[in-house]
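INFO batch 0412 | record 1 of 1 | parsing
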Amino acid sequence: MDRAMSLLGEYQEGTERKARSIIQAVIDLLDRFEGKKPIRPELKLMAQQYGNFQPWPIQILFRGETQNREARMQISQFESLGSVRQKCATLFGMEQNEFHMQMKSGYVDPDEDDDRYVKDHDMSLQVLLSPNITYDKSAHPKHLLSANQVYFDQLFSLLTKNSGTLTESVWNLL
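INFO prediction complete | emitting tokens
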């Protein structure tokens, strides 16, 4: 984060493309840390084509360190596992990387499995969530970014440049 912000601090006229690339890299880092991944276009298309299929009712069990929680939701067989992970996070008020997700066929790896369809992962009617003990909210890059006034000053100074695409990139990051 320090290196990226240092490079942005050296912004000069004519290096807009470089600045936009750095800003996009920071956005991608934040998204990656949060477990956000873009949905592949073919997944979006498949979901639209087969959206009329009946969703499956599933039970979500969260086995916490001090308490267990349970909820129900419906998912489509043409939904991505990443979408299911996002729905579970929203349902329990957690970040996507704050828990591990298991289904009938075992652990769902966010890096390898989140782009796969539910129907391809040997779906059961139960999803088990367990705490990710290595996840630390305070180590999130967005906290490092927001806690440093110099970084904000650099970003806001970039907003004063007369470049529409650079300004748009900065606002996307903010």
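INFO post-check: The two ends are 14 Å apart (CA to CA).
INFO record closed
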